[in-house]
UniProtKB/TrEMBL annotation:
The gene is lepB. The keyword Acyltransferase does not apply. The lineage of its organism: Bacteria, Pseudomonadati, Pseudomonadota, Betaproteobacteria, Burkholderiales. It comes from the Bacteria. This is Signal peptidase I. Its EC number is 3.4.21.89. It comes from Limnohabitans lacus.
Length: 321
C-alpha cells in the first residue's frame, strides 16, 4: 500500500506541476473530485480495515503483557517492568501514507462541497470589468443561484433563479471551456442587443444612462468617460474610451454568428435560445460576446456578488452590483 500510495501522490503532484508549468490544460474541478474520491476510499479503508487491525494488535500486546505479569507473579516476581505504553502508541499510530490520504479526506470533502455547490473564490486577472471590479480583487461566486449543477459534468440538477440582465456572471469561456471568464449579462434568450456608435440598446430601446465625472484608471494611468446604466433592477457603472473606434475588429467565427450583423458602427445580435450576450463594464477594453459570441447555459459557473479581499486596497471589500 505504501508503494501504491506513493504512485498516487506522485501522479497528483505531476499533474499539478504540469498544469502550473503550462504543459497541459488542467481541470481543477476534476482534480478536486478525484482527490475527494481517492482520499474517501482511503478514509473508509482506514476506518473499517486498517484502524481495526491496529487496535487488534494493540489489544493483543496488552493481553500478552497481562499474561506475562500473571506468569511472573506465579513465580513470585512482583516488581517487573511492564510499561507497554510506547509500544502501544506506535502500533496505533497512523502510517504516513494514511496520514496523507485518509487524514486529508475531511478537509478535502468540505472544500469540494463548498466549491462545487455553494461558493467558489476567483481572482480578477484583468481590467475588463473596471470600474465594478479591479485587477487583483478576490471575489466569491454563488454556485447555486442559477441552479445546482453536478461538478465536472456541469449537469443542471435544479432550476434556481433565472439569469437576469445586469447580473455579473462567471462562465466557462466558450472558445476554451477550461478558462473561466467574468462579464455582465447584457442580453438573455430572445433579446436583440445592439451596440452601435458606443450606445447600447436592447430590443430597440436605448439603455438608460447617466453621465458621471471622468474615471481615472490607475492600471493604465488614464481618464475615461464614466457613466452609469441600468440593465436590470439596479444601476451599475461603466467606462468608455472615446479614442477607440466603434467598430469591432478581429471577430472570430462562433456558433450562431449568423445572428449578428457587424458594421463600422458596431454590432447587432439576436440572442439564441439557451444563450446569453455578455459584455465587460470597461467597454473598449473587454474581449466579450462582441468578439467570440454567445455563452450557452451549460457554461454558467455562477453569479459573482462579493469582493472578499483585495490586498492592495482593503476598501474594495464588500458586495457589488
Amino acid at each position: 500500500m505504501q508503494f501504491l500510495t506513493s504512485l498516487v501522490l506522485a501522479a497528483f503532484v505531476g499533474y499539478a506541476g504540469s498544469w502550473y508549468l503550462g504543459f497541459i490544460e488542467g481541470n481543477f474541478a476534476l482534480l478536486l473530485f478525484m482527490a475527494t474520491v481517492i482520499t474517501g476510499v482511503y478514509w473508509l479503508a482506514e476506518r473499517f480495515v486498517f484502524l481495526p487491525r491496529r487496535q487488534q494488535a494493540a489489544e493483543q500486546l496488552e493481553a500478552q503483557a497481562a499474561q506475562r505479569r500473571l506468569d511472573l507473579n506465579k513465580m513470585g516476581i512482583e516488581k517487573i517492568d511492564t510499561d507497554i505504553q510506547d509500544a502501544r502508541d506506535k502500533l496505533l499510530m497512523q502510517p504516513w501514507w494514511l496520514d496523507w490520504t485518509a487524514g486529508l479526506f475531511p478537509v478535502i470533502v468540505v472544500v469540494f462541497i463548498l466549491r462545487s455547490f455553494l461558493f467558489e473564490p476567483f481572482k480578477i486577472p484583468s481590467g475588463s470589468m473596471i470600474p465594478t471590479l479591479q485587477i487583483g480583487d478576490l471575489i466569491l461566486v454563488n454556485k447555486f443561484h442559477y441552479g445546482i449543477r453536478l461538478p465536472v459534468l456541469n449537469t443542471k440538477l435544479t432550476e434556481g433563479t433565472p439569469v437576469q440582465r445586469g447580473d455579473v456572471m462567471v462562465f466557462r469561456y466558450p472558445p476554451k471551456p477550461s478558462v473561466d471568464y467574468i462579464k455582465r449579462v447584457v442580453g438573455v434568450p430572445g433579446d436583440e442587443v445592439a451596440y452601435l456608435n458606443k450606445r447600447l440598446t436592447l430590443n430597440g430601446q436605448p439603455i438608460e444612462t447617466q453621465a458621471l465625472p471622468d474615471y481615472f484608471d490607475e492600471s493604465t494611468m488614464r481618464y475615461f468617460k464614466h457613466f452609469s446604466e441600468k440593465l436590470g433592477s439596479k444601476p451599475h457603472q461603466a467606462i468608455m474610451d472615446n479614442d477607440r473606434p466603434a467598430f469591432v475588429p478581429g471577430v472570430d467565427p462562433f456558433p450562431f454568428s449568423e445572428n449578428c450583423q457587424y458594421t463600422v458602427e458596431g454590432v447587432r445580435c439576436k440572442v439564441p435560445a439557451g444563450h446569453y450576450f455578455m459584455m465587460g463594464d470597461n467597454r473598449d477594453n473587454s474581449a466579450d460576446s462582441r468578439y467570440w459570441g454567445f455563452v450557452p447555459d451549460a457554461n454558467i459557473v455562477g453569479k459573482a456578488f462579493l469582493v472578499w479581499m483585495n490586498f492592495g486596497n482593503l476598501k474594495r471589500i464588500g458586495a457589488f452590483d
